[in-house]
Amino acid sequence: MFENKSALSLDTSSWAKESLEKTEVLTTSLNTSTTNRSSAVTVKDNESFFPEIPTDSLPTLPSIGSSNPNPNPYLTSAAIVPDFNGDGKTDKMWVNVQTGEILVRLMNGTQIIEQASLGQYYLNTWSYKTADFNSDNKTDFLLRNEQTGENVVVLMDGIKVATYLTLDRVDPGWTANISDFNGDRKTDIFWHNGQTGQNAIWQMDSTTVTSATVLETTDVALTATIVDFDGNGNSDIFWRNNTTGENTAWFMDSSEATKYDLQSQDLSWTTTLGDFNGDYKTDILWRNTASGENKIWTMNGVFVTEDTINTLSSDWNAKIGDFNSDGKTDIFWHNVTSGENTAWLMDGTNVSSEAFLPSNSAGLTASLGDFTGDGKTDVYWRDQETSADKIWNMDGTLATENLISDADKLTPEWYTA
After folding, report:
1. Nearest-5° Cα angle at 48, 42 to 50
2. Rounded to the nearest 5 degrees, what angle is found at the Cα of 335, between the Cα atoms of 333 and 337?
3. Which of 236, 327, 374, 376 is the one with CA 20 to 30 A from 244?
4. CB neighbours (10 Å) of residue 144?
5. Per residue in 253-274, pLDDT tens?
6. Model pTM?
7. Are 262 and 284 in contact, with CB atoms under 8 Å apart?
8. How many other CB atoms sit within 10 Å of the CB of residue 109?
């Protein structure tokens, strides 16, 4: 399946030089300087800092062609949530940890429409990212060999591989993240070298690298997360310093970056991304793993509004969903010690409603998706010991439980991806 190509190093190969020439990178625009680096403004406790933005000025995302009525791209994009046939219903992907086999199941609620094996992979060698490289609203894959640096784009059509192409090798020190820096709804690849701090972008058109750009080198203590803080459809980069707790935003225009410093947060704070007010701009749920404190940064470009929300003890884990299909991210909480569950329906940073859901075994793992296509996030519960899996179909704060049939149970060596 994989072509045999010579290894490619972003820092030593002719590719880096050629990419700079082909894309005419303006080095001065990427270097840190006082002309393009500012401090973002943080507003606390609902203080009104900037004028109200008219509703008609909010960005309108183009139709994605999915039958799912939920407008929130964090929960409906095939690049993020598995949807291999583009029907707006979350599908399931399973990995057999003993054999390395990958299984794709097309879902309709708890019903399995079709399933197929994608073959076996050496899990200690190959990793994968879900993507949508051709903007057909069907989940694709970026496969990466972490030992050799090989990269393969796999375009999917339901349970079938429509086509695949081996890309140039990138040395194993680099990690890949999916993104969309030019807003064409086709997945691009952001490369970061955690050993050297080097960064690069591959802009993609299906299986073709249309441009390759080397960005500014960053401190090796920085970790990158792909976001869209200004809601323009172009990916931005959120940098967090794992040593100092400092935070920086790179607002991207294709391959050009404008940088702003954000407020620092000590290392006890962890992040979960969402869109709590439904304006298509990435917000951040900050959770303090030591104290259980929680707060939300509502992002509006360089402006940050910080609001505290309820405190929960550190044995509660948070996942995002949208349980009432209003386009605003909600929070699903699972207590890994007691098995308790609750959901917070969010309206911005306000908890508009709180659901005390049934408890279950603390050992169950939850994965979220819209398995029925009604625009409301459901909860898939995996029992790794007994394979007695079930789905909670959510309607706001109400949960209806449906069991996965015995015929469709997967043995414990299968893990949901």
Report:
1. 75
2. 170
3. 236
4. 24
5. 988 999 999 999 999 999 999 9
6. 0.84
7. no
8. 14
